[in-house]
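Exam revision sheet. Question 4 asks you to relate a sequence to its structure. Input first:
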Amino acid sequence: MLDLILPLECGGCGAPGTRWCSACASAWRVGVDQPHLVAPRQDPGVPVFALGRYAGARRAAIVALKEHRRTDLTAPLAGALALGVHRLLRWGLVSLPLVLVPAPTRRSSARRRGGDPVLRTAAAAVAAHPGIAVVPALRMRAGARDSVGLNSRGRERNVAGRVLLTRRVPAGAEVLVVDDVVTTGATARESVRVLQTSGARVTGVLTLAHA
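Answer key, structure tokens:
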């Protein structure tokens, strides 16, 4: 009866009767070579890593989490992010103590989405790790528009000077900026610049997907 009123469907492929099917779970599995290094058009000045391409089940799940309030997808996406962070630690590309700083979002977008999905995912990913903290240190100044549909130059102008530091990260910790998708790299570059200007030691950017 509940399925008739609120039908279950997979957040990755839309398959009925389940919130997260085995095929989509497999598509999100972090491979032995992931996260891999990507090169966005706008270089943030630190390595940028992604867990896969922004396509198929990966894209659908991210969109469902962000735009359709599918908070039930936080757990599987956080699991993938957690493994990505673990790999970077194991490979020696980041070290403890470590601070994850979610990429900034507009307040209006966060309200519409019932909160910041990147912050929620990052917090769930490292909740059990005592050496890693999540600090929402950035936000987007009013006036920034939705970046969907903007080209590389437009995205750069859209975020230039609009990323604000709201709190400082703990001294001595390395900082990893985390986001759902990196496209042109404009937001990542401005985020890294603002954090570094405040004295933070940013060592990389990690995203769930790259476009």
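Marking note for examiners. The chain has one domain: 30-210.
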